[in-house]
């Protein structure tokens, strides 16, 4: 089993590892002759199935395995991978290989950098006055510190003209090699045809709004929770009233129960989209309702070649049906809706740093699937696709 | 009458904050030692494998410094211990920052009152700020004897000096949870390896922190003359604390050591401040009993002639615990069991478990250790010191 490659685009690889590591600790990495796949299946939350073309990340890619299609399956921790790649960001060259040390399989990165350091006349960034003092009274400082280390105040000028020298960094990431049978049971989730597909606005923008909503939901929750705990019995009626009047103590107790279960999950956000370029993100809590809406987004056309039943299939496709409906203002008719976990969604959106085009597919009340397309630098090269499966919660 | 009274400029107060931050990485409490010509802030870590000291010069660091030789102290020292967090909360990081508002610090005055027969010992910090604002902090301290690690520079024939900025760059590559740092030289390259000794299997293996090796050309050092093919292992945490402080001053860090399993000293000097860190090392060399000096790499970028190493503290440091001398060369596999410098085997002379660590209490001044082992190089010793003046009678009274 051999794997060795030189990393062509450390920046992209590092950003990819960073955005994946927010969703899970460990990734299933599948290396083959054709592509590199990263899969994250957390116990809870969003699954990621990423397929990257080899030439997006690597050059001089060598792989050799007894398995079919030279497949190597690994389980790799993402945080160390990200950290290792981070140390390669200013490198001249970086290579990666699968190796073994003390019987532990490792992904080993070999990074060559030139030292960025050019010795400057030593002026401390802080505390200059004490230094000035010592210079002002050289006799004191020299008589007191008469020993060998005067490096702080004197620098050999010749060091300015040193030629750059290479520094070699090796970062060893422990991995587990997975057998073909242990990954045989892992399948990409299947989902019915989506009701709405829409090109998302820039993820940074969407993330800023989503994170704000999540924070507001937390704030609303913690303020009502603190009101509940701080003033005891009297608040129970306030709560009941806020919930629309009625049962006094009874209403409060259900609310309190709701709060405690809320603490275990992030706040729920509602995402709605239609086939007329509309996207709406909204938050409802007991205290507030807030929504942001985007319009005139693109709803890409389906490629008949990729749809079962070709032209006819496109005509019968749920999204075509949806396109025929006029979306109402309430977000009911003509809209597909999902309820997502605000915190998990924020982590999903961190993929925005990779800067690809993102198409969101809404399966009404079921799931939200994001396709993140990273274009290959090379003309005619294969695109890389990251697929995020976000589950919709019931109301 | 105060036993100690000194004043700091705003910048020097900022430096004190940086010092306390660094000392805080070693221990919760900071030792303070006042003498007629200098003030020493130091800390010793709980496992006694690392000792940090900052010597502040009376005239070049302080804007005013008065020390009243105390009646009870024949050796003319004042020593105490203060909880680091209490002291560093007074010297906040933005103290010297003039942008910090109208009440930026102008001057800091510290007086230490010592009245052995009264109940409290007081450490009073007065921050004199702009617009006539004065903040006064009264802290209590514990009057204790302060220990210092002795380090024999003349025996420490391995020396290297490198800019702290470069070391900072290297240490940034290390995993945050890595525990140990191995320094090793071969073929004109020095390799800094951070690793963690943990035996893990199965799924746990993925939780093992990164193993990082940074290999540097010896010519990137300002000076390098040290034995090749020797592993010198210290704690990453200590290393990071030292490098962070040295980097903030923009200085070069000098390391001196004799052999693996012997103490190593990092030192640097800046603006009336002498910073020294003595760390216990583990590791192994090819032939540690008889180092082949012919194999030593020598490199020195700085052509300026240097003064001879200070002999001040070496004169009396001729004793060390025997068990330390006899320390078997630890292989990398036994490091974990051994712990970094946490030598707990009793010496043949003393059942005190702490006696054979880096430090011994002052009261054991006249304690004589067995002569050194024959194969050990002469004069390479580790000892302790509490005062620079040779005194033969008891030097302090415990309050």
TrEMBL record, chain A:
Ranges annotated as biased composition (Low complexity): 220-239
Keyword Transferase assigned: no
Family annotation (Pfam families): Hus1 (PF04005)
Organism in which the protein naturally occurs: Viridothelium virens
Name of the molecule in the record: Checkpoint protein
PANTHER family: CHECKPOINT PROTEIN, MITOTIC AND DNA DAMAGE CHECKPOINT PROTEIN HUS1
Entry's transmembrane regions: none
Main location: nucleus
CC terms in the record's Gene Ontology section: checkpoint clamp complex; nucleolus; site of double-strand break
Cited SUPFAM superfamilies: DNA clamp
Single GO BP term: telomere maintenance
Region of interest (Disordered), ranges: 118-148, 220-265
Family the UniProt entry places it in: Belongs to the HUS1 family.
From TrEMBL, chain B:
Signal peptide (from-to): none
GO BP, one annotated term: mitotic intra-S DNA damage checkpoint signaling
Keywords attached to this entry: DNA damage
A GO term from the CC aspect: checkpoint clamp complex
InterPro entries on file: DNA_clamp_sf, Rad9, Rad9/Ddc1
Protein name, UniProt field: DNA repair protein rad9
Residue span of region Disordered: 297-399
Regions of compositional bias (Polar residues) in chain numbering: 320-336
Family, per entry: Belongs to the rad9 family.
Pfam families in the record: Rad9
Function: Acts in DNA repair and mutagenesis. Involved in promoting resistance to ionizing radiation and UV light, as well as regulating cell cycle progression after irradiation.
Organism (species): Viridothelium virens (Speckled blister lichen)
């Amino acid at each position: 089993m051999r794997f060795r490659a030189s990393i062509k685009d450390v920046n992209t690889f590092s950003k990819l590892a960073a955005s994946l590591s927010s969703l899970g600790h460990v990734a299933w990495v599948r290396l083959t002759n054709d592509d590199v796949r990263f899969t994250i299946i957390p116990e809870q939350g969003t699954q990621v199935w990423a397929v990257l073309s080899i030439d997006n990340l690597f050059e001089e890619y060598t792989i050799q395995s007894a398995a079919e299609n030279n497949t190597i399956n690994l389980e790799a921790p993402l945080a160390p991978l990200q950290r290792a790649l981070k140390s390669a960001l200013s490198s001249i060259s970086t290579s990666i290989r699968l190796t073994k040390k003390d019987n532990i399989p490792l992904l080993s990165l070999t990074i060559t950098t030139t030292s960025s350091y050019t010795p400057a006349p030593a002026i401390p960034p802080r505390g200059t006055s004490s230094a000035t003092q010592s210079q002002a009274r050289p006799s004191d400082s020299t008589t007191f510190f008469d020993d060998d280390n005067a490096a702080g105040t004197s620098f050999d000028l010749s060091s300015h003209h040193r030629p750059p020298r290479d520094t070699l960094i090796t970062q060893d990431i422990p991995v587990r090699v997975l057998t073909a049978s242990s990954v045989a049971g892992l399948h990409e989730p299947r989902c019915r045809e989506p009701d709405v597909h829409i090109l998302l606005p820039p993820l940074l923008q969407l993330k800023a709004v989503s994170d704000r909503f999540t924070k507001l939901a937390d704030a609303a929750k913690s303020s009502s929770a603190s009101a509940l705990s701080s003033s005891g019995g009297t608040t129970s009626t306030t709560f009941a009233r806020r919930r629309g009047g009625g049962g006094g103590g009874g209403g409060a107790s259900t609310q309190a129960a709701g709060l405690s279960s809320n603490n275990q999950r992030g706040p729920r956000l509602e995402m709605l989209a239609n086939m007329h370029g509309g996207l709406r993100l909204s938050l409802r809590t007991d205290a507030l309702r807030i929504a942001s809406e985007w319009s005139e987004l693109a709803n890409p056309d389906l490629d008949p070649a990729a749809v079962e039943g070709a032209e006819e299939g496109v005509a019968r496709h749920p999204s075509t049906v949806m396109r025929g409906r006029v979306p109402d203002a309430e977000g009911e008719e003509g809209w597909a809706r999902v309820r997502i976990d605000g915190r998990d969604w924020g982590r999903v959106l961190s993929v925005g740093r990779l800067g690809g085009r993102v198409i969101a597919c809404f399966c009404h009340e079921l799931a939200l699937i994001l396709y993140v397309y990273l274009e290959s630098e090379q003309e005619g090269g294969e695109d890389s696709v990251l697929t995020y499966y976000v589950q919709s919660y019931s109301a | 009458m105060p036993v100690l009274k000194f004043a700091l400029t705003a910048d020097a107060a900022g430096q004190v904050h940086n010092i306390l931050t660094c000392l805080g990485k070693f221990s919760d409490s900071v030792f303070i030692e006042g003498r007629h010509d200098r003030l020493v802030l130091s800390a010793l870590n709980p496992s006694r494998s690392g000792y940090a000291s900052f010597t502040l010069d009376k005239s070049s660091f302080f804007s005013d410094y008065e020390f009243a030789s105390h009646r009870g102290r024949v050796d003319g020292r004042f020593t105490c211990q203060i909880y680091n967090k209490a002291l560093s909360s007074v010297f906040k990081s933005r103290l010297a920052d003039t942008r910090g508002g109208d009440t930026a610090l102008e001057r800091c005055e510290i007086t230490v009152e010592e009245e052995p027969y009264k109940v409290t010992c007081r450490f009073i910090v007065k921050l004199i700020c702009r617009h006539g604002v004065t903040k006064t902090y009264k802290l209590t301290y514990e009057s204790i004897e302060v220990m210092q690690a002795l380090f024999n520079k003349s025996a420490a024939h391995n020396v290297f000096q490198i800019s702290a900025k470069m070391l900072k760059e290297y240490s940034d590559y290390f995993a945050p949870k890595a525990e140990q740092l191995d320094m090793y030289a071969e073929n004109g390259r020095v390799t800094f390896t951070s690793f963690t000794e943990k035996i893990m299997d199965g799924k746990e293996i993925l939780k093992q922190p990164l193993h990082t090796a940074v290999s540097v050309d010896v010519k990137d050092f300002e000076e390098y003359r040290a034995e090749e093919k020797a592993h010198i292992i210290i704690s990453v945490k200590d290393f990071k604390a030292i490098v962070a402080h040295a980097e903030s001053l923009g200085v070069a860090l000098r390391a001196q050591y004799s052999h693996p399993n012997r103490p190593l000293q990092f030192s640097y000097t800046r603006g009336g401040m002498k910073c020294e860190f003595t760390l216990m090392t583990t590791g192994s060399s090819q032939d540690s009993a008889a180092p082949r000096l012919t194999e030593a790499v020598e490199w020195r970028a700085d052509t300026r002639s240097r003064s001879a190493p200070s002999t001040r503290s070496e004169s009396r440091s001729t004793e060390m615990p025997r068990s330390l001398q006899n320390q078997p060369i630890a292989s990398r596999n036994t490091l974990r069991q051994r712990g970094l410098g946490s030598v707990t085997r009793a010496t043949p002379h003393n059942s005190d478990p702490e006696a054979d660590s880096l430090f011994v209490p002052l009261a054991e001044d006249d304690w004589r250790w067995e002569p050194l082992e024959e194969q050990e190089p002469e004069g390479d010793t580790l000892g302790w010191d509490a005062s620079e003046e040779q005194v033969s009678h008891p030097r302090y009274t415990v309050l």
